[in-house]
């Protein structure tokens, strides 16, 4: 099989891969012998972050000469499982995917392992206890992101008297970033008993979901002080709902989000969002490097954490002109 004969070649010439373009025959026997074939099962196109992530993976594959087979699961786990099975059938050299939810992957990952196809988790984790089912996990520390959001609020509310009512727009139910950002935020705000999450619901990481849920929150909950949205898009949807209700986002109701995509950063610079925790979607180059190593049979770290920062309105104004996504 292509993958096995390729291992010997790539061990000596990993760097030369960047010069190899073109299409392979999906890694099957008789396929081109100098091109890695990667099957990538993307979550969907639910957010600005996801669009930037997809672009990064596609451009990095092109630059590294990797033959990328790409599928969009439209935020459905069954579609991702189907895509992974099809990559196994096509005998790709490596599978990478960003799991829409954390649970329920063991069977298909075992199928990939039995077919001797290495798997790289990108962006999101799975909750499988058998870590031999994947080779590495490249992506953010979502608990840390939630903590940074909560710590900012604790500091910002230090001089406020009385209760601070927070509504939370959660990401996709069961997704690692939704679970972890909630956990990190709750841990951080526990430092101040005046801070209370009074409503929490999923907006599925979409702008329309954020708007719809925020409309309901505004009807049901008097005196909302703060929105904590698990991503920029839901925060931007919440801004529309807040403005439609005759309130001023960023002033009457403070908004904290995660991602720092251009639209979010623009709203931050305009003072409609108060604080953004960055989640970097530009994972493509690191993914291609890891893939080349994994296919070559080299050791890779079990976890590669993305470096990230946070932004205030002033910092957003400075960063926006050179923001890549
Ligand atoms: O998994 C990363 C998250 O997924 C991003 O924060 C969000 O915008 C996306 O949909």
Structure in words:
- With 325 residues, the protein is α/β, with parallel strands linked by helices.
- It has two domains: 2-140 and 281-307, Rossmann fold, CATH 3.40.50; 142-279, Rossmann fold, CATH 3.40.50.
- 41% of the residues lie in helices and 18% in strands.
- It has a six-stranded parallel β-sheet with strand order 2-1-3-4-5-11, sandwiched between helices. It has a six-stranded mixed β-sheet with strand order 7-6-8-9-10-12, sandwiched between helices.
- Strand 9, helix 9 and strand 10 form a beta-alpha-beta unit.
- The protein is elongated and about 65 Å long.
- The model is unreliable at 1-31 (pLDDT under 50).
- Bound molecules: alpha-L-arabinofuranose.
- Alpha-L-arabinofuranose (AHR) binds next to helix 2 and strand 9.
- Alpha-L-arabinofuranose (AHR) binds at residues 46-47, 49-50, 123-124, 177, 205, 231, 258-259, 279.
SSE topology sketch:
Layout: H1 2-13, E1 37-42, H2 48-64, E2 67-72, H3 77-89, E3 94-97, H4 106-114, E4 119-122, E5 136-139, H5 142-156, E6 164-170, H6 176-189, E7 195-202, H7 207-220, E8 226-229, H8 232-244, E9 254-259, H9 262-269, E10 275-278, H10 284-295, E11 303-305, E12 310-311, H11 313-319
Parallel strand pairs: 1-2, 1-3, 3-4, 4-5, 5-11, 6-7, 6-8, 8-9, 9-10
Antiparallel strand pairs: 10-12
The structure holds alpha-L-arabinofuranose.
């Amino acid at each position: 099989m292509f993958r096995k004969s390729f291992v010997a070649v790539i061990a000596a010439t990993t760097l030369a891969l960047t010069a190899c373009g073109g299409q392979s025959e999906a890694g099957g026997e008789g396929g081109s012998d100098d091109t890695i074939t990667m099957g990538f099962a993307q979550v969907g196109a639910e957010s600005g972050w996801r669009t930037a992530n997809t672009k990064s993976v596609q451009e990095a594959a092109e630059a590294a000469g990797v033959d990328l087979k790409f599928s969009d699961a439209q935020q459905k786990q069954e579609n991702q499982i189907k895509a992974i099975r099809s990559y196994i059938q096509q005998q790709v050299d490596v599978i990478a995917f960003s799991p829409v939810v954390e649970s329920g992957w063991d069977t298909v990952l075992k199928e990939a392992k039995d077919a001797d196809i290495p798997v790289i988790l990108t962006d999101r984790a799975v909750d499988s206890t058998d870590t031999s089912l994947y080779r590495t996990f490249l992506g953010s520390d979502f608990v840390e992101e939630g903590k940074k959001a909560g710590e900012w609020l604790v500091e910002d509310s230090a001089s406020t008297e009385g209760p601070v009512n927070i509504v939370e727009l959660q990401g996709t139910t069961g997704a690692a970033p939704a679970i972890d950002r909630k956990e990190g935020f709750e841990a951080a705000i526990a430092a101040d008993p005046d801070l209370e999450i009074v409503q929490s619901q999923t907006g599925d990481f979409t702008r329309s979901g954020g708007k719809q849920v925020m409309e309901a929150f505004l009807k049901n909950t008097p005196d909302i002080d703060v929105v904590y949205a698990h991503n920029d898009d839901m925060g931007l949807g919440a801004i529309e709902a807040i403005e439609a209700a005759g309130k001023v986002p960023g002033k009457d109701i403070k908004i904290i989000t995660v991602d720092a995509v251009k639209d979010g950063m623009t709203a931050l610079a305009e003072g409609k969002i108060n604080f953004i925790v960055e989640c970097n979607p530009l994972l493509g180059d690191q993914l291609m490097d890891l893939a080349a190593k994994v296919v070559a049979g080299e050791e890779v770290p079990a976890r590669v954490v993305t470096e990230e920062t946070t932004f205030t309105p002033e910092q957003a104004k400075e960063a926006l002109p050179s923001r890549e996504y």
